[in-house]
Design a protein that fits this description.
This protein is of the alpha+beta class and 170 residues long. The protein has seven helices and five strands; from the N terminus they run βββββααααααα. The strands form two sheets. Strands 2-3-4 form a three-stranded antiparallel beta sheet, with no helix packed on it. Helix 1 (68-78) runs parallel beside helix 3 (100-107) and helix 5 (115-128) packs across helix 6. The longest helix has 14 residues, at 115-128.
């Protein structure tokens, strides 16, 4: 609702349809074709969301069982670095719920790779500032969790006639 800058849910099958919002000091009513489809207590928190679980499709209702603390506690059981990655992902989103799937995906990588490898992969992800499920999965798939950055560049370039060096550009 634009006056309060607050968002109220409607049943999912009305998504994208024209609705009329009528509000009073305490309530918000939403109508479609003069039929009331939603009723909420008015909430004046800016950029907040009021969502009724009954308005969600079945495949989205799982999110109501989750909260950031629960996901962070799951990450703690895997390792400190996993916890840091999960906290970073959740804090990077305007609404933490937007990061739940990514965080759960990262945590569940321990089923395939184990807690120790996942925690090391998350440590590397923190070093690289790469906080995505795909990035951490790539680290694990390529066995890169134990590689130290300095090792990658330890060897000098070989001497070759086509390598000019920094004097060439002066």
């Amino acid at each position: 609702m634009s006056e309060d800058k607050h968002y109220y849910s409607v049943p999912y099958h009305y998504t994208g349809k024209q609705v009329e919002v009528i509000y009073s000091e305490r309530n918000v009513e939403i109508y479609n074709n003069n039929i009331r489809i939603a009723f909420h207590k008015r909430d004046r928190r800016n950029n907040g969301y009021t969502t009724s679980e009954s308005h969600m499709p079945e495949n989205h209702k799982w999110i109501m069982q989750w909260n950031p603390e629960r996901i962070i506690n799951m990450a703690c059981k895997v390792g400190d670095n996993v916890k840091k990655v999960v906290e970073t992902v959740l804090n990077s989103k305007e609404h933490p719920e937007q990061g739940f799937k990514v965080c759960l995906g990262i945590i569940h990588l321990n089923k395939k790779y184990g807690n120790e490898r996942l925690d090391k992969a998350c440590s590397r992800a923190i070093y690289l500032k790469y906080f995505s499920l795909k990035g951490i999965k790539n680290i694990l798939e390529n066995n890169m969790e134990n590689v130290i950055e300095e090792d990658l560049f330890a060897n000098n370039l070989p001497i070759h006639e086509n390598i000019r060096g920094n004097q060439y550009y002066n």
